[in-house]
Amino acid sequence: MRRLAIPLQGAQMLFVAFGALVLMPLLTGLDTSVALFTAGIGTLLFQLITKRQVPIFLASSFAFIAPILYGVQTWGIPSTMGGIMAAGVVYVCLGALVKVRGTDFIHKLLPPVVVGPVIIIIGLGLAPVAVNMALGKSGDGSLTLVPTNTALIISLVSLCTTIAVAIFAKGLLKVMPILAGIIVGYGLSLAFGIVDFSVVTAASWIAIPKFVAPEFNWHAIAFMIPVAIAPAVEHIGDILAISNVTGKDFMKKPGLHRTLTGDGVATIAAAAFGGPPNTTYSEVTGAVTLTRNFDPRIMTWTAITAITLAFVGKLGALMQTIPVPVMGGIMCLLFGSIAAVGLNTLIRNHVDLSEPRNLSIVGVTLVFGIGGMAFGIGSFSLTGISLCGIVAITMNLLLPASKHHKQDVASH
């Protein structure tokens, strides 16, 4: 019975992660079956590098939604995957630097005054896409896919369900608000008769996921590399969270250098197959907290379950039938939540915005990001999150530190 319990608990963890895992590829035009496969492969590689000591699951990273949307439209999926592989290499390099120099340099290079506004831009940069989809339009607003009044009802019900589950639900259901929002919104879409099952009927039960080989385009690579800032910082937060939950210091054993490297290798592997970049999943950490079962073998079975489901062709086709307003409603909360994480980073770390230096870094980063500032030399241009990341880091390094900042660094 004990042997059977671990695989079942592994499948349960995938159920917790499923909504967020498939939402990311659905929004960016990537294949959901490939995302399931690469989440499984990425988690197994992470476990290999960290010697299977950390009970954590890796899957689609929301921080990359905006960059992937832009990358796919501008350079296509293969070149975007090449850029994501480069972002994975950044993780591996950070892991090597942590191994050599410890974690202090990360705090100096990426203090809260840099990380906060960049995360805010990742969330708010997608606000128009979320609203367009909630109104039944395509992400750019050029096509109306579902009548506006019908779309508004479905998107608001999906949004309210997600919020209600996140706030009022108990037990395991509490960590599955996105999945709950998708299920209720999908059910309402069925009632309105806007779901088309023709792709499911045409799909076979067993099918190879639509893998995409990466191509290396230096424009896409230069665009994606700075995007790695926010997920790298998020990774450190997740490792601290799972350490607190289990009572073990994973920052020391297996070590932050191993977990960062594992995350990087998982992202490189995911992009090599045409899947979204991987990141540690807070939803699964929340489920681990509830179940109080800290056995890393559970995550091995979560990964195996994900890989198995990737080859069920009808499941991938079913994911494609989710109407636009369902995802749009959930995205209104999701992208706002990402922005709120950035805001909380500034508040929690007591970043004083009355200080001209801090105000300059945060202010310029936010306006460049939301306003769509772009710098270009010839055919090369920087815009959006990549530009914001570089500007914030550069200003932080060049502007003289305030007295308070110097005292904080000295005490640290």
From TrEMBL:
It comes from the Bacteria. It is a multi-pass membrane protein. It is found in: Membrane. Its main location: membrane. The chain crosses the membrane at residues 29-49, 56-73, 79-97, 109-131, 151-173, 185-208, 220-243, 298-318, 324-347, 359-378, 384-402. The keyword Membrane applies. Keywords: Membrane, Transmembrane, Transmembrane helix, Transport. Pfam families: Xan_ur_permease (PF00860). The keyword Endoplasmic reticulum does not apply. Belongs to the nucleobase:cation symporter-2 (NCS2) (TC 2.A.40) family. NCBIfam families: ncs2. This is Uracil-xanthine permease.
